[in-house]
């Protein structure tokens, strides 16, 4: 097989993963099975294989898709924190979610930020922040479509916006509701270390020209909690990218979280909280795949040490 080369400024890959192989070496690749949800497959102990993409960054458009195939041992976040910069987030962006929260439809996008330390791997532990009563922090899930900017832009129109989108990922805008409600700004309750799992794959915008077709789902312990479609967005992806770029430079690698559908835990009667031992699948269709992060309320010394190492090495 002849290695695939970049064509017309588009990446050679359709669905990129960053992973560790069986020898612990970090690699980039494209899953051999186009239809396989690699997050679920590895969670269930299945063998997963990928064609090697010769690159050191998901943002490298000169990357070459080789013929070499290797086994995937552990999935890593497709983008490293130093590649992403600050994560820009849109709140209250689904009509049905606004209805469940009994809030009016916003006229302009509501924006908040997440720090790069929130980036987490697709199966990394989500560790609840300290509370006087740990279970009172009300840890919650929010499935979200993540948009990755592939070309630095500023002051772009809605018509131009999609030219700057590299691709899409599944994200979980993890939220500690108690901390969120302590202050007027959302950054605190959503900004703890590891509170933005992303991946398992970065899917190129060239194969998803219209992201409104994507379907989002959260399954908690076998029960569907969120089931939505990107077509329910109040502000579309082109609108969001254009809005965020007005007067602000969106650097290549910027991650944009675009809001969550209805069904979050805090809106349920009675409210639903994430607890240790939960099986949580956060999923988006069309190859974006599933996040399978376990929940930890009391991090072990091993987990604390591991997370400190990740922050120091910037993953």
UniProtKB/TrEMBL annotation:
Domain called Fumarylacetoacetase-like C-terminal: residue spans: 86-295
Source species: Hypocrea atroviridis (strain ATCC 20476 / IMI 206040)
PANTHER family given in the database record: ACYLPYRUVASE (PTHR11820), ACYLPYRUVASE FAHD1, MITOCHONDRIAL (PTHR11820:SF7)
This protein's record includes keyword Aminoacyl-tRNA synthetase: no
UniProt xrefs under InterPro entries: Fumarylacetoacetase-like_C (IPR011234), Fumarylacetoacetase_C_sf (IPR036663)
The keyword Metal-binding is assigned to this record: yes
GO molecular function, one term: metal ion binding
Assigned keywords, A-Z: Metal-binding
Coiled coil start-end: none
Protein name (database record): Fumarylacetoacetase-like C-terminal domain-containing protein
Lineage, opening ranks: Eukaryota, Fungi, Dikarya, Ascomycota, Pezizomycotina
Pfam families: FAA_hydrolase
Domain of life of the organism encoding this protein: Eukaryota
